[in-house]
Design goal:
8 helices, four-stranded antiparallel beta sheet, globular, alpha/beta, about 220 residues, single chain, five-stranded parallel beta sheet
Length: about 220
């Protein structure tokens, strides 16, 4: 899944970016509100982690623009302003959750996962599909209670398909879920990952939709 991180502090931004990468997310890091706005206009994100104290376009203004345009992407607000009035203002502007600075990185990641579950209509972390049990936190997959080893890229493709059951995912959309701005897109990588997932998890798990992409049918 691809996350947009909007943070102008180099130290905080680099730490959060590294933590989210380690947690299995593709991350784009924008360092001002204008850059974030351009990213949101051109890319579909699963989640936005947004600092309010931004240069060029303030975080609250960016959030109001986002909601005013009908975009319902979950937003976790980060800010050094920790008063109740600041929290209420952020939530009323359209934020889904609020985390004050300084914060613990593990809590931030846990809140991100909770927002993603909520946006996908899930109340529990374990994602079950037929004979599969998928744990996004541990990044493990069990098939008939037997662990199946996956590479990081295979894992990301599987999660993207399982969290969008019944909705065909194009090759470009799958690539967006795998690669951030500074990562090189490997040629034919999606086809290779799909082939490997079929071998490991069952040939009938992922369907090819001719001329569109790939899909996991609704359970």
């Amino acid at each position: 899944m691809r996350i947009l991180l909007v943070e102008d502090d180099d130290l905080i931004g680099s730490g959060v970016e590294a933590g989210l990468h380690h947690a299995g997310f593709a991350v784009d890091w924008a360092q001002d509100g204008h850059q974030a706005k351009l990213a949101l206009e051109t890319t579909d994100y699963a989640l936005v982690v947004l600092d309010l104290g931004l240069p060029r376009v303030p975080g609250t203004e960016l959030l109001k623009w986002l909601r005013g345009g009908g975009k319902d992407v979950p937003v976790l607000v980060l800010t050094a302003k920790g008063t109740v009035a600041d929290k209420v203002g952020g939530l009323e502007a359209g934020a889904d959750d609020y985390l004050g600075k300084p914060f613990d990185l593990t809590e931030l990641i846990a809140r991100c996962r909770a927002l993603l579950r909520r946006s996908q209509g899930r109340s529990v972390e374990i994602l079950r599909y037929r004979a599969l049990a998928v744990d996004p936190v541990a990044q493990t997959v069990l098939r008939d209670d037997v662990r199946v080893p996956l590479t990081a890229r295979e894992w990301a493709v599987l999660l993207q398909l399982l969290t969008h059951q019944g909705v065909p995912q194009s090759r470009s959309r799958l690539e967006e879920s795998l690669y951030g701005w500074h990562e090189e897109v490997e040629s034919n990588a999606i086809e290779v990952h799909i082939s490997n997932l079929r071998k490991k998890l069952g040939a009938d798990l992922i369907k090819t939709v001719r001329g569109i992409g790939y899909v996991v049918e609704r359970a």
